[in-house]
From TrEMBL:
Membrane spanning residue stretches: none
SUPFAM superfamilies attached to this UniProt entry: FAD/NAD(P)-binding domain, FAD/NAD-linked reductases, dimerisation (C-terminal) domain
Database matches in InterPro entries: Class-I_Pyr_Nuc-Dis_Oxidored, FAD/NAD-bd_sf, FAD/NAD-binding_dom, FAD/NAD-linked_Rdtase_dimer_sf, Pyr_nuc-diS_OxRdtase, Pyr_nucl-diS_OxRdtase_dimer
The name this protein goes by in its record: Oxidoreductase
Signal peptide segment: none
Required cofactor(s): FAD
Organism per entry: Streptomyces camponoticapitis
Length: 488
């Protein structure tokens, strides 16, 4: 069927096949897949097209972290170490960040959305009953959009502000100030030991701040315990004051431009020039009209394997990315966007759904093969289940652990390379349930582990995947050999 430009773009009617709330990476991916299926799409964005990831999270944080890690990598290699004679140029680091976030100008990404054939509406979108969205545009005008087939919520999340007396009045940093600041605070207190907390501690300590990291429990708790231990030790060696099991009970900042004082539950006090929150995320679902379709405003949205929302009558409301709380990671949200977009296309065309595990319309990886990496020094990378998670799920498992000094390639990569790797093996099926690496540069090992876990590659076959000598990836050979020896 040939479409006219007007019918394809839905001009003049306010009616589209799909309406997407949120133009971040997740919203853009579902838009692309819906357009590939021949559907008309309207995209609504209230801030910058490209979302949190592009301007205040993944992109700027990695742009800022790379110079810090590059200097550390050089210092690990004889000959290069002697060439590192000066301090990091923070002005150039911030300028590099600014280039990667295009000076917070979203023109390029907005044009990308439009070039896909979708219509972009700037303003705040709210669901107004089934298949209907009201947009309050930036100029104050109101517009109603109607969806023939689907409304997709991809509005992301925001930092959680803990219930600590005085915290809001102290005007704390969140990930936004932590990635868009152009000033290095002399003293920075970071609350939270998850991925954001450890990356920001690595970054700002590397740029010259004196950082104190306060964590309620061990660092990066969603990974294997050894990952948090190695990262904590490295942060401490770099000069970060890492305190686990310590949380603030009150915060005060009597002078808006003055220092912040934190009262701690161990009886002590901590003074800093800025305090940063890295204490979790809250879904941006409190003001998008969920109450008009029988759902709870401000809640995480429960979805099936096609990202269709449970509790909404009819097959029309989808939730993707952070808002469904499956995996608060950009790459997982983009994966959901692609999969859900294909499912919407199939439902619109009346085609059968392939929503069985690992099917074309199932987001199975969100349960079994989520990859994540933290760009600390050393890096921490993992995919799939930890040993504890696998045991709790009822699997009969074996763990295989090795230090990276077994691999000559690692020692050539960095003199005295220090790192650790673990495989979690399903003994009944002889496949991997999870893999964790900690060490310099291990993020580049993560995709091979993800393929092995998601593909459920039998270990007797995986041993035929030969790692090049001399590379850090040789660790695979030693892990598999250790497993073989123990099995024999």
């Amino acid at each position: 069927m040939t479409e006219t430009s007007e019918s394809r773009r839905g001009q003049g009617s306010g009616t589209y096949d799909v309406v997407v709330l949120g133009a971040g990476p997740v919203g853009q991916n579902i838009t692309d897949r819906a357009r590939a299926a021949g559907l008309t799409v309207a995209v609504v964005e209230r801030e910058l097209v490209g979302g949190e990831c592009s301007y205040w999270a993944c992109v700027p944080s990695k742009a800022l972290l790379r110079p810090v890690i590059a200097v550390s990598d050089a210092r690990r290699v004889d000959g290069a170490r002697q060439a590192v004679t000066g301090a990091i140029d923070t002005g150039q680091v911030f300028a590099r960040r600014n280039r990667y976030v295009t000076d917070w100008d979203d023109t390029g990404q907005a044009e990308g959305v439009k070039s896909s054939g979708a219509d972009l509406f700037r303003g705040h979108g709210r669901i107004d009953g089934p298949r209907r969205v009201t947009v309050t545009r930036d100029d104050g005008a109101h517009l109603t959009l109607t969806a023939r087939h689907a409304v997709a919520v991809a509005t992301g999340s925001r930092p959680t502000v803990p219930d600590i007396p005085g915290i809001r009045e102290a005007r704390p940093w969140t990930n936004r100030q932590g990635t868009d600041s152009g000033v290095v605070p002399a003293r920075l207190a970071i609350l939270g030991g998850g991925g954001v907390g450890v990356e920001m501690a690595t970054l700002w300590q590397g740029l010259g701040s004196r950082v104190t990291l306060l964590a309620r429990r061990r660092l990066i708790p969603r990974m294997e315990p050894f990952a948090g231990e190695l990262v904590a030790g490295s942060l401490s060696d770099a000069g970060v004051d890492v305190r686990t099991g310590v949380v603030p009970t009150a915060v005060r900042r009597p002078d808006p431009g003055g220092p912040v004082t934190l009262t701690l539950d161990d009886g002590g006090e901590l003074e800093a020039d800025e305090v940063m929150l890295a204490t979790g995320r809250t879904p941006n679902t409190d003001d998008i009209g969920l109450d008009t379709v029988g759902l709870t405003p401000g809640a995480w949205l429960d979805v099936d394997t096609t990202c269709l929302v449970h509790g909404a009558e009819g097959e029309w409301l989808y939730a993707l990315g952070d808002v469904n709380h499956r995996a608060l990671l950009t790459h997982q949200g983009k994966y959901q966007g692609r999969t859900a977009g294909d499912a919407i296309g199939a439902r619109a065309a009346g085609r059968p759904l392939d929503d069985a595990p690992w099917g074309d319309h199932a987001t199975t990886a969100d349960q079994h093969a989520v990859p994540q990496v933290f760009f600390t020094d050393p890096e921490a990378a993992a995919v799939g289940l930890t040993a504890q998670q696998a045991a709790d799920a009822g699997h009969r498992i074996k763990t295989v652990d090795l230090d990276f000094d077994a691999a000559q390639g690692a020692n050539l990569y960095a003199d005295g390379y220090q790192g650790h790797a673990r495989m979690v093996v399903d003994l009944d099926r002889d496949v991997l349930l999870g893999v964790t690496f900690v060490g310099p540069g291990v993020s580049e090992l993560l995709h091979s582990a993800t393929v092995a876990v998601a593909g459920e590659v039998p270990l007797k076959r995986l041993r035929h995947a030969i790692a090049c000598f001399p590379t850090v990836s040789e660790i695979w050979l030693f892990l598999l050999a250790a497993h073989q020896r123990e099995r024999d």
